[in-house]
Amino acid sequence: MFTKPVLALSISAALCGSAFAQEEFRQHEAHVHGHVELNIAQDGQDLLIEITAPGADVVGFEHAPQTDEQTQRLN
């Protein structure tokens, strides 16, 4: 059948095309402390709250816990 090779070639071309697409360069924002973002929204009877904060501002450190006290803060 002629359609199977054409179909396989079309699918391969579609999948490979995205691999060759140029990826956009993205720069991360500056690393900051003490900045917390709070979003509140109401959807009918639901109240949605979203808090975005650096880990160091929440638990006091931003590395893997190294002491028992730091481990307790995460539990």
From TrEMBL:
Supply the InterPro entries for this chain: ZrgA-like
What Pfam family is a match, any one? ZrgA
Q: Indicate what this protein is called per its UniProt record.
A: DUF2796 domain-containing protein
